[in-house]
Amino acid sequence: MTNLVKIDFGDIDPEHGAPNPDRIIAGDPQFRTWNCDESDGGIYAGIWEATPGKWRIAYDEWEYCHILSGRSIITEDGGDERHIQAGDSFVLRPGFRGTWEVIETTRKEYVIRL
């Protein structure tokens, strides 16, 4: 076992998913997730992709995101919308509530801490 893990999804079959139906606001967003690493204590790293649509999000975990491709709009309840695109990085903190709208299929690298 190595202590250096490359974030590479070439040999991983993605998990398929979607937002819970009661959270969908528009479209038919579909997810693919390649969880490339996980560690004791609830830390996960990998790649996530979503097709166009809009849904409600609620974060109880901390997540670092780096957008690899696509365009989305994230809006915090009571806040301004944030347009994100390839090259952008950000953190969603526990307690974040709002919406995620995928304008163009969006792919991100993530690190999640529960």
Written account of the structure:
A hairpin with a 3-residue loop joins strand 3 and strand 4 (43-50). This protein has no helices and nine strands. The chain is globular and about 45 Å long. The chain has 114 residues and is an all-beta fold. The chain has strands at 15-17, 24-27, 31-39, 43-50, 53-58, 62-76, 81-85, 89-92, 97-113. The chain has one domain: Jelly Rolls, CATH 2.60.120.10. The two termini are 24 Å apart.
Number of domains: 1
| Approximate shape | globular
How many angstroms separate the termini?
A: 24 Å
Number of strands: 9
Low-confidence stretches: none
Class in CATH?
Mainly Beta
- Supply the number of helical segments: 0
Within CATH, the superfamily carries the name Jelly Rolls
For the biggest sheet, the summary is: 9 strands, antiparallel
Tell me which CATH architecture applies here: Sandwich
Structural class by SSE content: mainly beta
| Mean model confidence by pLDDT | 95
Q: The CATH topology, please?
A: Jelly Rolls
- Estimated helix fraction: under 10%
What is the H/E order? EEEEEEEEE
Domain (S)-ureidoglycine aminohydrolase cupin: 39-110
Protein name: Cupin superfamily protein
Task: Write a brief caption for the model.
The chain is mainly β and 114 residues long. 0% of the residues lie in helices and 62% in strands.
